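Worked example

This section walks through a single chain of length 250. The input is the sequence exactly as stored; nothing has been trimmed or padded.
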Amino acid sequence: MLRARVAEARLAMLLLTRIPVGYLRDPIPATGASAWGWPLAGAVAMLPAGLIYWALHAAGFGPTVAALGLIFATTLLTGAMHEDGLADMADGFGGGQTRARKLEIMRDSRIGSYGVMALILTVALQVALITRLDHPALVVPAALGLSMASRAMLPFWLARMPAARADGLGHGAAQVPAACVYIAVAFGLVGLLPLGFGAAAVIFAGVVVATALVAALALRQIGGQTGDVIGAMQKLAELAGWGVTVYLFA
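Given that input, the structure is written out below as tokens.
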């Protein structure tokens, strides 16, 4: 039992980060079975990024440079997979006229103008929001909590939404056990508790609303979820969480 859970946690790290955890040996867990560990993978990836933010801020580089350092480090540690999903979703939903064309554009590895603008705007907004907080004692725990909370809802939507394709990561990860959904949501809430119980509840509610809006848009545009939709969902949920955090604390 313990060996299986460790394998699932390592698979979560392999899926969502570029942090080396070694090769998995057979039997390799199903992708959906690792979903409970996705918030933990988010925390592991964010911890060194948070330390970089603290170091840059303490060295006197200012809140903007520190915020950029946090985002840059997180992007490197996650392999920019969520940013890639956001760009692909923006290109597909913005440039395609039919469901089939939208899915075709989303699978294209090239980035278009919608994707570029989506990335520029989200990074700019995130930097602006983190800069407003301007305190490592608040930004670092918020970054860790939001990294966990924004990934905590992904298993829920994978379990609830149909796959838009008959292949791909979204299809392969769609079979998420109910227990994994509950555990992931619990980890997401726990990650925000250092900000206070009331604040954690409000911020998590903002994350839930953001993911629900992305889910509704994806259902309308392509009839379900793909790996790109799930990646975009994480980025937009994290951004919404930063917005709520600034509203509560700035």
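What to look for: The chain has a mean pLDDT of 93.
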